[in-house]
Amino acid sequence: MPLPGVVPHPPEFAQRWRQKGYWRDRSLADEFWEVFERFGDRIALVDEDGRTRTYSELGQRASRLAANLYGLGLRRRDIVVLQLPNSIEFVETYFALQKLGAIPVAALVAHREREIGQFVEMTDAKAIFSPVETRSFSFVDMTERIADTNDSLRFGILLGEVPKGRGDIFVSLQRLLEEEPDPAWSAAVEDNRIDPDDPAVLQLSGGTTGIPKLIPRTHNDYSYNSRVAASVCEIDSGHTLLLVLPMAHNFPLACPGLQGFLMAGGRVVISSSTRPSDVFQLIEREEVTHIHAVPALIISWINADESVSYDLSSVKVIQSGGQRLQPEVRTKAEALFENCTVQENFGMAEGLLMFVRLDDPEEVRLETCGRPASPDDEVKLIDEDGNEVSDGEVGEMICRGPYTLRGYFRAEDHNRRAFTPDGFYRSGDLMYKHPSGNYVVAGRRKDLINRGGEKISAEEVENLILSHPKVVNVACIPVPDERLGERMCACVVLKPGAELQFDELCEFLMSYGLAKFKLPERLEIFDELPLSNFGKVSKKELVDRVVGATTS
Are strands 448-451 and 454-457 parallel, antiparallel or unpaired? Predict the structure, then answer.
C-alpha cells in the first residue's frame, strides 16, 4: 500500500518505467551499500578540515547509526526532519535514514520555528536532527517549543554536545554514530524490507513565499534521477565534486550531486563556507574537478581578488542552476577557472532535469538551459488556454516522466491546481524551444510586472542590465502604483567604486531598442541582493525593503 499522502504513478506508467530499466525496484540502501562495498577503501568524503571517510567507513558508520536509531524507537516509514549543516555527519545521517527506511524532510539550517514547526505538523515527524546552535540561535530551544505543541515529536538529535540540564528528548548524534548497537537492532535493520515506491526523502518546493510544499521522491525515481544525471554529465570515478550549496537541496544531493558522484565511485568534498578564499583553497587542496553552484555564488567568485592566489586549473565543470546564468558571467567564470566549462542546467525538486550537453556548440551552451535528461521526459509549452505553442514561442513548461512527481505530499487541494488532468506538472516556468532542440528560460509566470495591463518579463530587462559594464548583479521587482497597478524598480549591485544614475541606465537600455513601457521607473543601489533559503535572489524581501523605504 502506498504511504498515505503520496500520489503514485499510474500503473501503466510505472510498468513502462520498470520495463525500460529506469525503476529497478531497489531501495537507496540496496543501491548504496552495494556501492560502499564495491569501492571499499577509496575515499568517498573529505571535509574542509581534512577529515575523510572511505566508502567502507561511510557504510559502516551509517549502518551503526541506523541500528542505534532503531534502538531509540525510530522505524521504517517514520518521518523525521533533517536540518544539519554541510558536514560528513549530514551524509552519514542521510544514508542511515535510508538504511532504516525512515523518511527525512530535507530542511535547511536557515529554517526557523515557523518552517520546522510546520514540517513537523504536516508530517507527524518523530525527530529533528539539528545543530545545537548557530550564530547564537538555539535549535535546542526551538525543538523544545515545537515538541510542546506536537505530540508526535519524540527526539531532538543534536550535532554537538547536548546541553546539561535540558529535557530528556535530546540525544547526541555523535554518540549514536560511535556506540556499538545491540546486535538485535542491527539484525532488525538488516531485515528491513523497504518499499521502493515509498519516499526516500521529502524535498521542498522552491517557492520563496509561504511554507514550501513537500515533494515525495521515491527510492525508484530518486535513484534513476541521480543515475541519469551522472550519465548525461559524464561523471566517472576520477572526478571530485565540491559541494558548497546546502546539501539537503535536490541539486547538490542528487543532480547528480552527492548521490550521483558516489554511484560513479567519485570523491565528494564538503564545504560549509561559500567565501571565495575558502572555496578556492579547497579547490587547490583537493584538486576539485566539478562544482555545483548558483549564479549569485559564481558572480561573487569572479569578482573576488583572492582568486589570483590559488591554482584553480583542476576545475573542469561548473554546473549552474537555480536561475539563468547570463552569457557574460559564464564567459568570465570560464576564464577565471582556466580549463573550465560552465554547464547550464534547469531542474526542480519536483523532478524534471535539463542539462546543456558538454559537447553542445558554444552558442547553444551560452543561450540555453539544455534539454531533458531522460528520453522519456515529456515536456510541453502551453499558452494560457492550455494549447501547445509553436517552436520559438514562449509558453508555460509542463512536464511528466519517470522521476517527476504526480502530487505533493498530503496536498490534495493544491495538487488539483498544480497538475493537469493527465498528470503533467505545471511548473510556472516560461520557456521557448531553441532551434537546437534545447530550451531557453524566459522567466516565470509570477515573475511578471503588470504595468497598466502590459505584462513585462523581469528577466528580459535583467538580462540587458547585466550587460552594463558597471553592473555586477540585478533584480527587477514590481512596486505598487495607484494608477498603473505596478511599476518596475531595478535593484542593482555595482562594481566597486562605480556609480550609476537612473537616466544613464534608461539611456543604456533604450540603446537596445527596448520598448519604453519596459524601462525601469526607479533605481535602487544595493551592496548585495538578499537570497532566499534556496540560494535565489529573494524578490519578496527586495519588494519589502523598497516599498518600506518609500512609505517610511
Answer: antiparallel
